[in-house]
Amino acid sequence: MLFFSGVIVLQLAFPVSCYNYAQVLHKSLLFYEAQRSGKLPADNRIPWRGDSHSKDSGENGEDLSGGYHDAGDTVKFGFPMASAMTVLAWGGIQFQAGYEAARELRQLHSAIRWGADYLIKCHVAPDQLYGQVGRSDIDHGTFSRPEDKTGKRPAYKITQDKPGSDLAAETAAAMASAAILLADVDLLYSDELVRHAEELLQFAKSYPGKYDESIKDAHANYASYDHRDELVWGAVWLYLATGDQEYLDLAEESYGPAMINASTEFTWDDKGPGVMVLLAEITDKDIYRDDLKTFCDMMVSSTPRSPKGMIFLSKWGSLRHAANAAFICLHAANMDINRSVLTKFALQQLDYILGDAGHSYVVGYGKNPPRRPHHAASSCPSPPATCDWSNLSKPGPNPHVLEGAMVGGPGAADDEWEDDRADYVTNEVSLDYNAGFQGLLAGAIELKRKLPRL
């Protein structure tokens, strides 16, 4: 397997950070455990969570239990889940020293394997992949604990007749990145993941199309703007997992047609900046380095900023966008692209989230953190207490602390934010919100070890 582990050595001093990045990383991993679906393991660390949706199954009875609930709800959306797993694994691969320093590498492996086990279940045939379990209108029409939802839920898949190459290729990327991360601890499992990833990328190549045109319920929640960036993304990750030149050739040939250089964000739906980083690392070609520099220059110099320094790209998960941009640009700094400027930018965005805004945006950490995230499971007291819509509007903190969850953040570039449980735009949490943020934390920990003054 191929991968280019980063070594960050800086020549300039940066402002001292007063935040405990390792503690936040620990809590972020607890957030992922709180999002688990299915039968929980004996070492479950979230005492207020129990087994849920253990009867999730496909149209032919396939076992689809496990995986992660998406956000404050309990639908399992395969596209953003796979994207979150890819980015989480990438953070662990690139910044392994950060995870090791925080003594959280084993927990990262557990988080990735929990997701990968579910994705394997979803891949029921070479050209069939389940991409969603649960119907959003039904799920969003209730406010209850996952453990209380005991009925059978619908499951939706992509096939030759109902393609979704974005979903298939993103799932291939998730499996390939997991294979790289886990190869040293379970080579047989890693090989199994590569096999699934190769089948899925072939499926994506052979039957192009957007998954949300086949899984209609996903369109209102996670609509895909294009399927071509995921094809490049999946090919790059399979090259890194296998060393097979065919995958690198596919990625480079598809880079232009996929309009990767037009990317203005790194999200569950736009993999462009991530592709730039990986191809720049692999090939050292100017085209990828220049595109990456252009993206990060745009983030630093021309993206709107709040008075306290947060870059603002969208009201939906504004902090997710800031953390993802910082994660990408820390990689760029690692490749000697505006090293000092981009490292400072990445740390500024991270520290804004942790408290430089005047308070923390991470549940359970720092000064005046969020206490009322939009998250049904943590908003209800443990049974036998009632859990229904009345809990949404009850005053006071959520009965359970959703440790490590980063909330959406300000709805504009003005630093204004209210800890309102009912506000699902600025105060919800999500698998993909924490993914780049957690990788950024690991990178900051690694950097701090090299520069103790940070």
Structural description of this entry:
There is one protein chain. With 454 residues, the chain is mainly α. Helices cover 48% and strands 2% of the residues. The chain contains 16 helices and three strands. The chain has helices at residues 21-34, 78-94, 96-102, 105-122, 136-140, 165-182, 187-206, 216-222, 228-242, 245-255, 272-283, 286-302, 318-334, 339-356, 376-379, 431-450; strands at residues 76-77, 129-133, 155-158. It has a three-stranded antiparallel sheet with strand order 1-2-3. α2 (78-94) packs parallel to α6 (165-182) and α9 (228-242) runs parallel beside α11 (272-283). It is globular and about 60 Å long. The two termini are 33 Å apart. Mean pLDDT is 95; it is low at 5-13.
Please describe the topology of this protein.
Blueprint: H1 21-34, E1 76-77, H2 78-94, H3 96-102, H4 105-122, E2 129-133, H5 136-140, E3 155-158, H6 165-182, H7 187-206, H8 216-222, H9 228-242, H10 245-255, H11 272-283, H12 286-302, H13 318-334, H14 339-356, H15 376-379, H16 431-450
Shape by Cα distribution: globular
Mean pLDDT: 95
Portion of residues in beta strands equals under 5%
Largest β sheet strand count, sense and barrel closure? 3 strands, antiparallel
Give the C-alpha Rg: 20 Å
Count of DSSP strands = 3
The side-by-side strand order for the widest beta sheet comes to 1-2-3
Cα distance, first to last residue?
A: 33 Å
| Helix-strand category | mainly alpha
Q: Which regions have little confidence, pLDDT < 50, spanning 5+ residues?
A: 5-13
Q: What share of the residues lie within helices?
A: 40-55%
**How many helices in DSSP terms?**
16
SSE run: HEHHHEHEHHHHHHHHHHH
